[in-house]
Specification:
Helix content: over 70%
Number of helices: 11
Largest sheet: none
Structural class: mainly alpha
Strand content: under 5%
């Protein structure tokens, strides 16, 4: 009689930290293999990379009718920018400084709203689709078939998606930032009737080009993290169609946690405690 059969509850408690460490190792090894396969994928699977770029931007199937990830992320940032202007104008108006709504649009959209909303949109659209695609291939033994044909499955299925995602994130995020700016300006100037010159004065004064650069780097890092997480869960999905659904749910939940965690850590690392701006009058 083993200790596991004699003390099953104690054995399960002891195995939990071991399983957690083993899971971290599995994630790390898979991520390193995926990143190491990027040069090979860029050289040998260029047509697949181009197809995936089109899939990320415009979508496939019924999703292509509404424009895929670009339109979804654009509408999300458009709504987020408008909501920021509504809340900012109302809150600042309570203390008589609603003129600073342009400052909020330039400050919060770049540092918080646009990166977080773009990350959530990418995880909920392309990320979830990647997990479902790879999970379906795994349960249908298509990944095993690739290995039998001497095709590197990690490079062909994972590294190509990483390349396509990193290429597509630049125009996608540019659209997201521009739409968040336009939504804030439209809401403040057209709906609430604030002077356009007054709004533009505070907006251009506090729009720091360095913040835009950091914001783009943050978006690239979030896109890479989301793609790695979703490809991992899809690649190792098990349990048939139900297991694929569980993998998609776990991947989306993990990536959403990573998105907000990266936003907090990058904000602390880049902006620190002073916020890197001076507001005086």
């Amino acid at each position: 009689m083993t200790a596991r059969t004699m003390f099953p509850r104690l054995s399960r408690e002891v195995e939990r930290p071991v399983a957690a460490v083993r899971g971290i190792g599995d994630h790390t090894l898979f991520y390193l293999r995926a990143i190491a396969g990027v040069p090979f994928a860029a050289t040998n699977y260029r047509s697949e990379v181009i197809r995936l770029i089109a899939e990320i931007s415009m979508g496939t199937g019924m999703l292509a009718m509404i424009g895929g990830t670009v339109v979804i992320v654009g509408f999300m940032t458009l709504a987020a920018g408008g909501t920021l202007a509504i809340q900012g104008y109302s809150s600042l108006g309570n203390i008589g400084v609603e003129a600073l709504t342009g400052f909020l649009a330039a400050f919060i959209n770049v540092r918080i709203t646009a990166p977080v909303v773009a990350g959530i949109g990418l995880a909920a659209t392309f990320g979830a689709g990647v997990t479902a695609q790879l999970g379906a291939m795994r349960v249908n033994e298509e990944i095993d078939a690739l290995e039998s044909m001497a095709i590197r499955p990690v490079s062909y299925l994972v590294s190509t998606r990483i390349i396509a995602g990193l290429i597509a994130i630049a125009p996608l995020y540019t659209i997201a930032v521009i739409l968040s700016f336009l939504a804030s300006q439209f809401t403040t100037v057209v709906i609430f009737g604030q002077s356009g010159g007054l709004y533009d004065h505070y907006f251009t004064t506090f729009l720091n080009p360095t913040d835009l650069i950091w914001s783009f780097l943050q978006a690239v890092l979030m896109a890479l993290s989301i793609l790695l997480i979703h490809t991992f869960f899809g690649y190792f999905a098990a349990g048939g169609p139900a297991g694929v659904g569980v993998a998609v749910g776990n991947a989306v939940r993990t990536s959403l946690i990573v998105v907000v965690s990266l936003t907090m850590l990058i904000s602390l690392a880049v902006y620190g405690a002073d916020g890197n701006f001076n507001l005086s009058g």
